[in-house]
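Interim report to the steering committee. The following record documents the input for DNA-binding helix-turn-helix protein (68 residues).
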Amino acid sequence: MQLKNRLKELRARDGLNQTDLAKLAGVSRQTVSLLERDEYTPSIIIALKISQIFNETVESVFRLEEDE
């Protein structure tokens, strides 16, 4: 299973760049980039922070997908 997310879509919706989101979430811009490319699995704390920034549920931002 892989963890997928809607970060890029939500950033665009809210007019945020990766640096903006990183500052709000308390992570590095590189971490945001890795998250968007599904190359990093966030801690539950980071996932909650990011979901709150976008006023979304964790489940609407992050989802598990079956490997192909």
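The beta strands are 2-5, 62-65. The committee is asked to note this result when reviewing the revised timeline.
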